[in-house]
């Protein structure tokens, strides 16, 4: 017969008369179990006819065996037939990814900027001429514009794109984070950026750190203008 409660693990100090009654009840059993309550925790327990603790996992008489049960079927694997189909075309682009217009001539600097923007979960778009750049700016509201001071063979003073951005109506311009890249700039120098009507300037020798520089500059810009933009959005004023 068990000597300790399986629930609280305290000793079952039954008196001799209680033990005799339990033994008699067990001896008279032919089926089922004998139910008792622990004198300490009052949690019921069940004894088999030999005085051992009944396994709570034991199934009632007539219950189906484990081997007779039908196991649930696992979920079917996903259909990947779309991998061999042309189901994703140009019209099925993810629209929630912010677009960045990268106006940097093809080469290592553009590649560094592209890589940093993709790693930061932006969708960079590049063009090669000032005409294409202005066309894109007229048609699309970009989250950011990154312009190299020698883009398309023009200096910044000659740049039609830079002039276009400077003269853009503030209703649209305030929603664009405008970044200038070039050999003449001092990275993250806010006063220099302000003098060029930009939000941030980066020296091209620092483009290998473009991702971190961009994040820092954008965070500072959001801290400065974020509350203002939020109020405008709440009033229904957007850049689109």
Polypeptide structure, described:
With 240 residues, the chain is α/β, with parallel strands linked by helices. The protein folds into two domains: 54 residues, no CATH class; 128 residues, Rossmann fold (3-Layer(aba) Sandwich). The protein contains seven helices and seven strands. The longest helix is centred in the last third of the chain and has 25 residues. The termini are far apart.
Write the layout of secondary structure elements.
Elements lengths: L15 H12 L6 E4 L6 E4 L51 E5 L4 H12 L3 E4 L3 H10 L4 E5 L11 H7 L3 H4 L3 E6 L7 H6 L4 E4 L6 H25 L6
Parallel strand pairs: 3-4, 3-5, 5-6, 6-7
Antiparallel strand pairs: 1-2
The gross shape turns out to be rod-shaped
Classify the fold: give the CATH topology of the largest domain.
Rossmann fold
- Using the coordinates above, name the CATH class of the largest domain: Alpha Beta
**Domains, number:** 2
Total helices: the number is 7
The helicity comes to: 25-40%
CATH architecture group name of the largest domain = 3-Layer(aba) Sandwich
Low-confidence stretches: 56-64, 87-93
The termini sit apart by: 82 Å
What strand line-up does the widest sheet have? 4-3-5-6-7
In terms of DSSP E residues, the strand content is 5-15%
Query: Main beta sheet, described?
Result: 5 strands, parallel
Order of helices and strands: HEEEHEHEHHEHEH
Indicate the mean pLDDT.
Answer: 81
Number of strands: 7
Question: CATH superfamily of the largest domain, called what?
Answer: Response regulator
